[in-house]
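Students often ask why we bother predicting the structure of a whole assembly rather than each chain alone. The short answer is interfaces. A chain on its own may look different once its partners are present, and contacts between molecules only exist in the joint model. In this exercise we take two input lines together and write out one structure for the complete complex. Read the inputs first and try to guess which parts will touch.
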Amino acid sequence: MNESTLRVNLGERSYDIVVTENALHQCGAFARARSAGKRALMVTDTNVNPLSAFVHAGLDAAGFRTAFALRPAGEAQKSLATAAELYDALADMPADRNTLVVAVGGGVIGDLAGFVAATYARGIPLLMVPTTLLAMVDSSVGGKVGINHPKGKNLIGAFHQPLGVFIDIGTLATLPDREFRSGLAEVVKYGVILDAGFFEYLEQSVESILDRDPETLRRIILRSCELKARIVEQDERELTDVRAKLNYGHTFAHAFETAGGYSYWLHGEAVAAGMICASRLAERRGLIAPEITDRQIALLNAFGLPIAAEKTWPVDALILTMRRDKKSVGGKLRFVLPTALGEVALFGDVPEADARAVLD
Amino acid sequence: MNESTLRVNLGERSYDIVVTENALHQCGAFARARSAGKRALMVTDTNVNPLSAFVHAGLDAAGFRTAFALRPAGEAQKSLATAAELYDALADMPADRNTLVVAVGGGVIGDLAGFVAATYARGIPLLMVPTTLLAMVDSSVGGKVGINHPKGKNLIGAFHQPLGVFIDIGTLATLPDREFRSGLAEVVKYGVILDAGFFEYLEQSVESILDRDPETLRRIILRSCELKARIVEQDERELTDVRAKLNYGHTFAHAFETAGGYSYWLHGEAVAAGMICASRLAERRGLIAPEITDRQIALLNAFGLPIAAEKTWPVDALILTMRRDKKSVGGKLRFVLPTALGEVALFGDVPEADARAVLD
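Now the answer. The structure tokens for the assembled complex follow.
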């Protein structure tokens, strides 16, 4: 496979996303071309550890003296306590302003290591090496980093664009099936919100996607990153409604994740069900024809993803969580809704009755 | 006294600095003109607590429901543990993206509350109400916020520009003499690095400054903020050498603060002695005539500030600390040195022998 490179244009914070296959050690040269640093701190978790040896070797070969922070896997690592341990690791090196933080893993590792990089010495360089589909197409691109607070996911965070994103689709070969399917929910999302042609391509490529055909994976990852990059370029810090488009399905999804205690569903599973709720809500508001929802249901079903809330979750509690969403202002219900296939808009004051109706 | 306003031009992050007298409650209207938020979290310390009642009343009158975080006074508050308590306070309100963090106090409160505002929900609005001279002329302007790590002061931090800075010089009436004199060191610094005419004004105004004459204070605070603002506008995130000019005297000062365990000298005292070391270093390098150092010594003496390191501090340890400075890269000695009165430049590779000579 040829290596493909995509540029995220953000002025002095611009960076490249490279997509390659079975070339993980080359992340060292990728980093060296963008950094004069002498040291690196590689952050990874126990699930990803076998892959991280290649990254470590690549960084070594490129002349980075590399320290290694191995964390247990899981969302619990996105804590202030773990961030404190990584600050200690950097201070012990000691890190300077050119020291590179290298996040090798899924969204948890990227968010955590990214937050530490954003706040150490007021910001040091960050290299993202995502190893899950979700991290490749979503969390490693766009600069959102953060940790959790007992009262809210990602409640403590920053915007910190990486030095670069190095994607090796070879790392997906060992990704558990459920994690892989979860990542596909975000891929479907890009089609619905921004690109009807891409949505059609996904409909036509279900088999090769589920077979993890490298060329198909390369194509869907590149296009997903490109669509996200074009949004982030227009609204890096989510100051307008543009970046909010990426939250399609996410207001419902966060309520589902809260209802399930963040362990019942993976993030992508919650997003899948959330998108269908949002799409039904758009139907109720007269924005789209049912056929647009039906096509999303068919595609998400084909990917083995959920399309509705669990019936045991009390609707009252879901509504309350949505009113308290980090993105809500003044407790109003605010949703990104499709207006056509490939188009969404933000609706700021949706009646509660409509939201209830699609949950019931 | 007329209210004076100064604008810091940073595109969408631009803000006003207002200087007023005995009008602390007006900070509420100042905040309301810049924020549609419904809630505020006021952060202050036990020293400042008597003044904070006026701020609280002003915020109330302007329609902010205000929670109150009262911390003990002192540098120890710039910790991750205290930041965690402030995150809890915000989450308990609960804060949303329009909730205002109001820092009422000196540099410690501004840096701490600013860091929390920078990282809560990826950044919420921050109003600075500095109550020490040092905070008025330095730490509350320019967006540097942070907390300490056992291995380094301000090692965990961010850039987060405030919504505005509300300075009431009436708050200086009760500032202890030593704290007031410490703040004057940074005022002198602006003259040396950027404005010979301002330096001359300070030489001619020693008596009225030490008498805390309101009109003189207003003038020196406004000019200091203006000089800092013009630097920050050119190099907001210290990516070039421009913002580094503000570090005149600070490489030595940090070594002195470390030698004294951060308790022997106040920050401004360390900066005063550090400026004289840097000025002598500039003499040794043939950059300036001795008269320029002599004038700084005379002015700092008049303000009762130290002009040399304590003789008990081992020079080897001071040099080692300077090599490890957060701003040093690759362990080289790097100094901001005067090239004339009102002009400085950054020198990247000063021989250790010269640095030793000015310390001996």
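Check your guess against this: Chain B has a mean pLDDT of 95.
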